[in-house]
Amino acid sequence: MKCNRCGERAEIKLRQHNAAFCRTCFVPLLQKHVRRSIRKQKMFSLDEHILVAVSGGKDSLALWDILIELGYQTTGLHLSLGIGDYSDQSTELAVAFAEARNLPLLNISLREEGLAVDDATAFTNRPACSACGTLKRHYFDKLAIDRGFPVVATGHNLDDEAARLLGNVLHWQMDYLARQKPVLEPTHERFVRKVKPLYRTTEFESAAYCFFRKIDYILDECPNSAGATQLKHKEVMNQLEAASPGTKLSFVQDFLERARPMMQSEANRPPLTCEGCGMPSFTERCSRCRLVREVQTKRARYADRARSE
Amino acid sequence: MKCNRCGERAEIKLRQHNAAFCRTCFVPLLQKHVRRSIRKQKMFSLDEHILVAVSGGKDSLALWDILIELGYQTTGLHLSLGIGDYSDQSTELAVAFAEARNLPLLNISLREEGLAVDDATAFTNRPACSACGTLKRHYFDKLAIDRGFPVVATGHNLDDEAARLLGNVLHWQMDYLARQKPVLEPTHERFVRKVKPLYRTTEFESAAYCFFRKIDYILDECPNSAGATQLKHKEVMNQLEAASPGTKLSFVQDFLERARPMMQSEANRPPLTCEGCGMPSFTERCSRCRLVREVQTKRARYADRARSE
């Protein structure tokens, strides 16, 4: 198999594009594709300073690397989630990436901020992924606003977006469908723009990119994700992709072009302001503040019980 | 496991409803469910004479049986498609069902009408399912109109509808999505209303119904369907259903209630009239007349070549 560009030996085959490339051609090609997504969707300009959410996984590290290579101004944001060893290792890798390249990284520990994911799941009945999502969304906005970043970029890839779209479509969650786009403009003064520059990049491509660029990332899946519905949806999308290469890309892209515009009318009403933390919320208190309160109440109850026993 | 209705031993478990039934309770229950679908979607009234498309498979025979049991006026329509032995066996079973119950059945041979499916696939490059669909749609309308039936009922079940919806959604075929409903009103004087009373009934339920009612149906899959995309989509939907029972039903039902109404605007322009056969068409000649002409041309060419060799 030969590289479609230079004719040398190919190292990666992209079935969805019916093409193969050597690493020397693939790396700048992927960077160019990401730049095209950024420009096409008007995600941000070269003048803006971008806060890149970096988990320590392949997608977010590939994204950060690509943005730097494309000449964007970036600062990394790593949330130490507090999910046992998995989080410690993720933090190490994110920090190592930044240090090796002398890049600015905000490293925030959710435990130090008051509530780690492990505690949220231990003291409530919420699914871990739901608590984790609530906390992440809160801190992405809060930290960006507090430190003056106009935009947060996340590493969501095509596989994530296709699986999420499938989930939303299976239940026809019209609100979620209306908001499923690669650029989410803020609807409150304490929301920032959220963008997904890798929404057309597969998991496989970002893993290959890290491999070719010698980026160390965490290989383990999050221990909380086992059995998650999202994984089932990814599995199913992989089967459909194998049967008909290009399915994921056209599923997501055609949705954005043809179907989502029709769902505009259902779009979200502007949020209120949370009484607890001042961040946007659709109820009196935002979901993060309600989560924190729930954990505090349960903790106090357990402590009382322990004392009386 | 006990029957949810009468407490006797259950013979069928319906995971999507988290319920189990004995045959004595299941049979009238399914009939009632179908009546509810017919009424909810205003498919037809007791005064109308319904042409039931009967393939000889479990769904269409179960449908015909249910409509009779519910007191509707029906005539069966069987198209002998001309797909080798499979069609001969299907025809036998459809005829046997009608004769045993003394029911009126129109038995139409596509070969005698001018073009069987086997010839359409032998002389053109069209996929068999596409040629078959074109011919079926043509004769359903033509025979109903010519003989004064206001409505054609087909045996499409929930599995068919969910797989079709998935296929339409994967490519965001907005025209197809706008038309995917259990009642299709005619948009041309030579179209009739098409209805799918089993759109909320699973394949499993119609098979069980036939078993309990001792209805003989063709067990083989159509030989042309092997490898068809529709089968892949059914397989995927079965996996999603197994992971989360009720997925198929909510996928189809929520689509009809929440998403499809938004797609109204894209709805179909009214068709023209085919120059060849006078039936509705979106081009000068309808797809069936183009298919017939293509076969005639190729046949003549082959005959010429055979003579000259």
Give a nutshell description of this structure.
The structure is a homodimer of 309-residue chains. With 309 residues, chain A is α/β, with parallel strands linked by helices. Chain A is 51% helix and 12% strand.
Description of the molecule:
Two copies of one chain form a homodimer. By secondary structure, chain A is of the alpha/beta class. The first copy, chain A, has a single domain (26-271), classed as HUPs (Rossmann fold, 3-Layer(aba) Sandwich). Helix content of chain A is 51%, strand content 12%. A six-stranded mixed sheet of chain A has the order 5-4-3-6-8-7, with helices on both faces. In chain A, strands 1-2 form a two-stranded antiparallel sheet. In chain A, α7 (158-170) crosses α11 (247-259). Chains A and B meet through α10 and α11 of A and α10 and α11 of B.
Q: Specify the number of helices of chain A.
A: 12
Q: What's the architecture of chain A in CATH terms?
A: 3-Layer(aba) Sandwich
CATH class group of chain A: Alpha Beta
Secondary structure class of chain A reads alpha/beta
Per CATH, what is the topology of chain A? Rossmann fold
Strands across the major sheet of chain A, in which order? 5-4-3-6-8-7
Q: How helix-rich are the residues of chain A, as a percent range?
A: 40-55%
Overall 3D shape of chain A: globular
The arrangement of helices and strands of chain A along the chain is EEHEHEHEHHHEHHEEHHHEEH
